[in-house]
Amino acid sequence: MQPAILDKLRGLVGGAHALTGIELSSYVVEGRTPDVAVFPGSVDEVQSVVALAAETETPLVPWGGGTAATVGTPPARTGIVLGLARLDRLVEHEPGDLTATVQAGMTVERFQTALRKRGQWLSLDPSDADRATLGGVVAANASGPRRHLYGTVRDQLIGITVVTAEGALVRGGGKVVKNVAGYDLPKLFVGSYGTLGVIVELTVRLRPLPETERWMRVRFDHLKDAGVAVRAIMGADLIATAIELLDAEASRALGLEGTPTLLVAFDGLPEQVDWQCTELAAVTTPLGGPSVAPLPDAAVLRPEPAWMSARGLVAIMRFSVLPALVTELMEHGAGAARQRGLQAAWIAHAGVGVVTAALFSTSDRPELKTVAAVLAEWRSLARSGGGHATLEWAPLAVKAQTPVWEDLGAAGRVMQRIKAQLDPKGILNPGRFVAGI
């Protein structure tokens, strides 16, 4: 980066908020080190930084908590990391309207803590809530187990403020739930991975805190029986907030018994939750799940930290398939790995068809062709059922062998046209998302 550009950036955000050199170690992505990481303290400063990047045609990467930084095609160019950590203010909370407006740099955990004091919550539970920012959650379309009942970011977002690739400030949606005027601009930025604009503020709908919540664990001898139980639960008079299906390896990684397991959550009034837990046992016991017990700590629901620290991890892939095909994908995918001398662990939001698999090697130096072959077969299994797959994490050598994103065909071309309209110079997180945008 030219010294003159760096000096201008320091002048815009202050020298203490422009990191260079060794201070950039936390912002290295796929082996690429940015030239500078800047942290604006206001929306005006964000606009100025983006405008300077556009003027100098310098690549710019919006950065929340960095929890999804490894998702995407390896970047071809380095440039500016635009961190939003200083934009972390709760702008407005209207308990009577069940809405809140918040700056994009506030973490999910801090936001939920503030809401709980008023008896409300945002019904999203992404991983790493202590680091994940609200803007990043929107940009990555991140969600967790409770999406089964409460939906995803798209269902909670009602308004958004974005800095465009030219530094202009654009607002979409509103601050009330019943807002139907104009184009639904907020949803355009959900899952855009920072390629269309920099999210600086958002308005979300809230819900009252439930009086109680309980997670139940149901053990099975066979994964197929657990899959049958999922369908039975969804057809019964039960209102589960989450239905998580784990194979034996994923169960073991979470410190459970190491058998196929269903984790089912209920919330609401205590007497309602009691009834549903009793009914859950009545539904699952005849289907091969006689061991039904409360889960003592719902914090164990996140296998990714255990996978990332485990020896031999070579890839993590996420799938979206029809709920009826979840068990089949898990069984056939695990078999494909075993046939090539590898191991796999699988966990699914079973009721909505979102599945995550981790691939492991017992060798310190696995054959890249073997890893690529397993991932290709996994992707083929998803496609055969009308679904798709994304390579969420892998070393660079594996990404060189396996595409990160699916080829979306005509949909990809539409996305390219939108990108060209909103970011004509291609400076926002360039080349990392679907169809090279």
Brief descriptors of the model:
4 domains, five-stranded antiparallel beta sheet, Uridine Diphospho-n-acetylenolpyruvylglucosamine Reductase, domain 2, Uridine Diphospho-n-acetylenolpyruvylglucosamine Reductase, domain 3, 437 residues, 23% strand, Alpha-Beta Plaits, 15 helices, alpha+beta, eight-stranded antiparallel beta sheet
Structural features, described:
- The protein has 437 residues and is α+β, with helices and mostly antiparallel strands.
- The longest helix has 17 residues, at 368-384.
- The mean pLDDT is 93.
- The strands form 4 sheets. The protein has an 8-stranded antiparallel β-sheet with strand order 15-12-14-13-17-18-16-19.
- The chain is 32% helix and 23% strand.
- Helix 8 runs antiparallel to helix 12.
- It folds into 4 domains: 3-83, Uridine Diphospho-n-acetylenolpyruvylglucosamine Reductase, domain 2; 90-208, Uridine Diphospho-n-acetylenolpyruvylglucosamine Reductase, domain 3 (2-Layer Sandwich), CATH 3.30.465; 212-301, Alpha-Beta Plaits (2-Layer Sandwich); 304-399, EIF_2_alpha (Alpha-Beta Plaits, 2-Layer Sandwich), CATH 3.30.70.
- The protein is globular and about 70 Å long.
- The protein has 15 helices and 19 strands.
- It has helices spanning 3-13, 43-56, 108-116, 134-140, 147-150, 153-156, 185-189, 223-235, 248-253, 270-284, 304-309, 326-339, 368-384, 396-399, 410-422, and strands at residues 18-19, 36-38, 60-63, 80-83, 90-94, 99-103, 120-121, 157-163, 169-173, 198-205, 207-208, 212-219, 242-246, 261-268, 291-294, 313-320, 342-349, 354-361, 388-393.
- The two termini are 23 Å apart.
